Amino acid sequence: MCGILAVLGCSDDSQAKRARVLELSRRLKHRGPDWSGLYQHGDCFLAHQRLAIVDPASGDQPLYNEDETIVVTVNGEIYNHEELRKRLPGHRFRTGSDCEVIAHLVRAFSPTSAISIYRFPLWFHRRCKYEEYGEGFVDMLDGMFSFVLLDTRDDSFIAARDAIGITPLYIGWGLEGSVWISSEMKGLNDECQRFEVFPPGHMYTSKGGSHERWYNPPWYVEAIPSAPYDRLVLREAFEKAVIKRLMTDVPFGVLLSGGLDSSLVAAVISRHMAGTRAAEQWGTQLHSFCVDVGSPDLKAAKDVADHLGTVHHEFHFTVQDGIDAIEDVIYHTETYDVTTIRASTPMFLMSRKIKAMGVKMVISGEGSDELFGGYLYFHRAPNKEEFHRETCRKIKALHQYDCLRANKATSAWGLEARVPFLDKGFIDVAMGIDPEWKMIKPDLGRIEKWVLRKAFDDEAKPYLPKHILDRQKEQFSDGVGYSWIDGLKAHAAEHVSDKMMQHAEHISPYNTPATKEAYHYRMIFERFFPQNSARLTVPGGPSVACSTAKAVEWDAQWSKNVDPSGRAAVGVHSSAYDPTAQSLLDAKHRMTEVKASGLTG
C-alpha cells in the first residue's frame, strides 16, 4: 500500500504551501516508506508515499503520460495492467509500474480519441469530456486502487476509488475552495472545513463537483439473483482471483488463521504458485503467518500449514501487549468502532513482526462472510430474500469495517494486504448465485458458507483437511482468544467511571458509547481527531455479531445486545441446530473459525 495526498485549487502556489503539503504527506509515510514524491502545478499539488511492490527500481510516483500533461498519484495494484498496455499501441511507458497505465488510459479512451470512437456511441462523444467519463477507463481497471489524476492543460482532475473500498480514501474541502484528497484522514483533517469518506465505487470530477458511481454490478439493485449453483464455476473464479494477486517483485506470504477462508487462500496459492511471477522471483515455498493469544486457532493454522507444506510462523502476544498498542491502533485505523479495534490490534502487532522479516505483501481472506452469509447471525435469516439483502448491505459497508481494518492495521508498518474474495469477477459469480443455496439448513447438512465449502470439497485431491473444511465461523477478535476481549473490557473499566457513562449521551450525542470500552476508544479517537467531520466517518447503530441494524430485527432479543462480539450470537447459532442435525457435524471439527481481516476465516 502507498499513501496519496492531493491538494487542488488552493489559491496558493507559494513555497510555504508546498512545504505544508509535504509535511502533511509525511503523516502517511508509514504507508509508503520506500519513496516520497511531490508534484506541483500552480496551486495544485500531488504527493505520494510509495511502498514498492511492482517495479521497485523505477516505479516512483507521481506518474505521467508521454508529454507530462497528465499526472497521477495512485495507491493500489492494477492486476490487468499488462493486458491494458497491449491495448495502447504507440504509447511510450516510462516504468514497469502497474499504475502508470492509468495516465495513458485516460487519454486513449477519452471521447476525443480515435480509439474511443469504436467503444462508445456518437451521442456520448458529443456531450462528454474525458474528465466526466468514469466508466470509460475506471471500470477497465482490475484491482484495488485510489487515485487522483490531474490534467495540467486546464487543471481539471478526477479522483476515483475501487469498487468495494479495499483502499482507503477521504475527501475534504477548504474554506478557500480547495479540494483535498488523502489515503488517510490524518492527511487532511487539520486543513479542511469539512471532510468525509470517499465512497467506494465512485469517482469525483472537478467539473462535476460531486460523486458519481462508476461501479454498477447487478447485485446493487433489489432483484434477487436466480443463477443455479455451480461449484466448479465458483472454484475456478476464486482460483483466478487468487492467482492474479501473485503479481509481486518483493517477498510475500499468506495470513493463515486456520479458518476456512484464509485456509482456502493458502491452499490455492500452494497449488498454483508454480509458474507465477511470484514464484519466478521468490521460489515456490509459501510462508504463512498466524497470531495467537491463547486460542484454538494456532492448532488449526498449524494443521493447514502442515497439510500444505508452508513455512509457518506463529506470533504470540499477551493481553497487555495488545492494551499497550490500543492508542497506536486507533491512530492508524482512524476509528472508534469496538469490533474493528478489537480485531485490528492483533493484526497490527502481527504486521510489525511480518514486516521485520522482510515481507512486504500478504494475501488475506476478507470478504467471504459478507458474500456467503458466514456470520453466526445469518442462521436467523427468515428467507432467501432477506439473506441476500443482508449480504448486499454487508458488502457495501465493508470499507468501514473489514477493509479498513485489513488495510490500515497492515499499512501502519508498510505491509500490503491483498484480498482475493473481493475480486470484482469473483463477486459477480458469488453474488449471482440464487441465495437459496446459501441459506443455512442444518437438516440438509448445510452449515454457513456451504456453497464455498462444497466448491473445494475434492476427495481425490483435497485442498484442505476435512476438519478445516467443516470448521465453524467466528469473528477474528473472538478467535484470537476470549481473554483478549475480557482484558479490554477490564482495562476500559479502569479508565471510564459510572458517572462518565451517565453523561455519555451529552458528551457524545452522535454514536453515543453504550459500554465503557466504547467510551474509552471514543476518548482516544477524539484526542487524535477532534473534528465533528471525523466523528461522522465512523458508522454506528445496533448490531449483533457484526450484523447490520436491519438484521437486528430478525430476533427481538437482539435489540437488547450491547456487545458486538460473536459470542452474542452463540445461542442463536446453537439453537439453529436441532439434535438430529447436530449429529451431522463432528464436534471436534467445529472449533472457532476466524473472521480475520487479514487472517480471515
Please summarize what this structure is:
Pathway: Amino-acid biosynthesis; L-asparagine biosynthesis; L-asparagine from L-aspartate (L-Gln route): step 1/1. This protein has 24 helices and 19 strands.
Q: Keywords, please?
A:
15% strand, single chain, alpha/beta, six-stranded antiparallel sheet, disordered C terminus, 19 strands, Rossmann fold, Glutamine Phosphoribosylpyrophosphate, subunit 1, domain 1, 2 domains, 24 helices, Asparagine synthetase [glutamine-hydrolyzing], 601 residues
Provide an overview of this structure:
The structure is a single chain. With 601 residues, this protein is α/β, with parallel strands linked by helices. It folds into two domains: 214 residues, 4-Layer Sandwich (Glutamine Phosphoribosylpyrophosphate, subunit 1, domain 1); 366 residues, HUPs (Rossmann fold). The protein is 35% helix and 15% strand. The protein has 24 helices and 19 strands. The protein has a six-stranded antiparallel beta sheet. It has a six-stranded antiparallel beta sheet with strand order 4-5-6-7-11-12. Strands 15-14-13-16-17 form a five-stranded parallel beta sheet, with helices on both faces. A hairpin with a 5-residue loop joins strand 8 and strand 9. Helix 5 packs antiparallel against helix 14 and helix 9 packs across helix 10. It is globular, with a radius of gyration of 24 Å. The two termini are 22 Å apart.
